[in-house]
Structure formats: C-alpha cells, structure tokens
C-alpha cells in the first residue's frame, strides 16, 4: 500500500486531496501547521501530523513520523491579493517563505529517500496565474512562477534516479480561502490605494464574471493523475478555466 504526504490539508485543495487519496486506498499523511480534530475523518490509513513548511524542525519531525512515503504533494500556500506598490516587503517575504522556499525545503528533505529507493514523485501545486494574467496578484504569481521553474529543472535532475517531479496548476476556486479573499470588498480596498481603486474594481469585476471556475475536486483528481503519470508530462492544469488558459497559451 502506497503512502502520500500532503502539506496544507486543513482546508481547500489539500483537504480534498487527502480525502481523495484515502478513498483510493492510499495511506495518507495529512499535514497542517496546527492539527485540529474533526478536519479529516479518523482512519488507520489517515494520520494528521504537524508540519509548518517555514519551520525546518517540523518538516524533519513530520517525515520521521511518516516513515517511507511514495509521493509528496506540496500544497501549502498563502494568498496575496493587492497592488504591489501597497504591499509591504515583509508581506512579500512571508509569501515567498511559504509558497516558494517552503516547497523547496520540504522537497529537499524528502529527496534522499526517493533517490536511494529509485522511485517517488513530487507534485507541486502552483496556480493558473502562471498560465495567464490575473489582476492584483503580482507577488503571488511571482512566488508560484518560481516554483514552476524550480520544478522543471528538478525534474531533469531526478530523472536518472527514477524520481519524477510535476506541477498542478489550479484555476480560480471560489470556495477556497483565496477565492473568499478575492471577493472580500473591504480587504480589497485596504490592499488597493485610492489611485488604483477604480481600475481594480473594474478589473476584478470582469475577472469574477468569467464563466468557468475550478472545484476542489478538480484539483484533487488532477493531483492523482500527476502522481500516477509516467509519460513525462510536467504541467497539469486543474479545472476548466485553467485548462482553457493552458490551451490558449
């Protein structure tokens, strides 16, 4: 029976992915910064473990508790919506610490066992913002684009050892925290200085009026496909809006 370790499973894509892999018969190590009872069902094949991707000691502890794993899904991430001019550099660094450096740190920690065993797969969840242009996401897009480049090069490094690396690119999902933030008028106003406000409201309104959005189940199913893919495909758009962007690109 195979085992997957997934980061950021307290809600959204991560939680849905943990449930999906469990339903398919895998052992699941579901990690989150602050483990909470009731977020995921109790099962002898599903364990909730503390892991904060910005804290190396929790990465080490989670991998020790997990034992051998066959797949790593780097899902943990934080959103950042707002005009770049008004984004404090402390916030920029916070986003990169989780979305970029956290992915790298967790990946680096698991690679020795994959390499020594001659098998394993790393799936990094990025975003469809790398496929197109979404307003007010300059920092977020930069953090995810960095992971795309990292993964593409990593895949080449790992290929001689039988280890694979993939990215999953979810579209816009209105039921995740990111979607809720995007729809939160007061928060949007706080992140947008007055000179940008009229443009931002118009642009976000146009974006939210699109006809296609991604469901959490779309992402879970796409992560499953990426984990099992043996064709050499690197990038997997998830959700109808992401697929449309990928096809247009």
Compact overview of the structure:
This protein has 249 residues and is of the alpha/beta class.
CATH class term:
Alpha Beta
Q: What count of helical segments does DSSP give?
A: 9
User: How would you describe the shape?
Assistant: globular
Percentage of residues in strands:
5-15%
Q: Which range best describes the helical content: under 10%, 10-25%, 25-40%, 40-55%, 55-70% or over 70%?
A: 40-55%
What's the arrangement of strands in the largest beta sheet? 3-2-1-4-5-6-7
> What is the CATH architecture term?
3-Layer(aba) Sandwich
Number of distinct beta strands: 7
Average per-residue pLDDT, rounded, comes to 92
CATH topology: Rossmann fold
SS-based class = alpha/beta
CATH superfamily: NAD(P)-binding Rossmann-like Domain
Radius of gyration: 18 Å
Main sheet specs: 7 strands, parallel
Query: What is the H-and-E element order?
Result: EHEEHEHEHEHHHHEH
Count the domains: 1
Q: What does this protein structure show overall?
A:
It is built from nine helices and seven strands; from the N terminus they run βαββαβαβαβααααβα. The protein has 249 residues and is of the alpha/beta class. It has one domain: Rossmann fold. The longest helix has 29 residues, at 89-117. The protein is globular and about 55 Å long. The chain starts with a strand and ends with a helix.
